[in-house]
Specification:
Number of helices: 9
Strand order of the largest sheet: 2-3-1-4
Helix content: 40-55%
Distance between the termini: 23 Å
Order of helices and strands: HHHHHHHEHEHEE
Number of strands: 4
Radius of gyration: 19 Å
């Protein structure tokens, strides 16, 4: 991105941070709490460190579900879906690092296949995270509800421009700290730091 727009890496990294971290009001608020004078980047880093420390000391989140039985919210795979999942997972091949294109008309059950693959990847190793990209904000509420029913033991975050600056910052930090296992969002979600990112679904 820095090369494409002919900007320094620092400038690009700065714009990738949530607005809440870069807002002057946030800097002043942090400075008042710590008794220090706002000083640009130093105050920004202080805000980041403070928020990360708060998240680190928060109660532990739900641990990944290692039970092989699917929740009641999971409908049984159709023969066609089972064939697609089997082809994507392979007999002994780890799908990590591979790209798959799933083609089907609306209502053909593509989302169910996405969920199955996300579940497979998240169960395969601890600390893994999934990113699910959606084309518009209006699709996130129903998808978020479906994911929470399907992945009861995983923490799910939603990231889009309809949230407040502080809400976006909280989700961004939770993702960076690994407290979110599944992140659902619009295009802006690709800039969220996911240290355990193991699968990206572009719906």
């Amino acid at each position: 991105t820095a090369r494409y727009y002919h900007r320094s890496v620092g400038q690009v990294m700065g714009t990738m941070l949530p607005n809440w971290f870069r807002a002057a009001s946030t800097h002043r608020e942090r400075a008042l709490k710590t008794g220090t004078k706002p000083s640009g980047m130093a105050t920004l880093m202080s805000a980041l460190v403070s928020e990360m420390a708060a998240l680190s000391s928060a109660p532990a989140q739900a641990t990944p579900n290692t039970n092989q039985s699917k929740p009641a919210a999971w409908p049984t795979l159709t023969p066609a879906q089972s064939g697609v999942v089997a082809a994507m997972q392979g007999e002994s091949v780890d799908p990590m690092g591979k790209t798959f294109l799933l083609q089907g008309v609306t209502g053909s059950g593509k989302t169910r296949v996405y969920l199955e693959m996300m579940d497979h990847i998240l169960r395969s190793a601890p600390g893994r995270q999934a990113l699910l990209l959606v084309p518009e904000i209006g699709l996130t509420p129903q998808l978020d509800q479906r994911l929470r029913a399907a992945f009861e033991a995983h923490r799910i975050g939603v990231l889009h421009s309809g949230l407040t600056d502080k809400q976006r910052a909280e989700v961004w930090l939770a993702a960076a700290m690994g407290h979110i296992q599944i992140l659902v969002g619009t295009r802006m979600a690709i800039l969220a730091p996911l240290p355990g990112l193991a699968i990206i679904v572009v719906d």
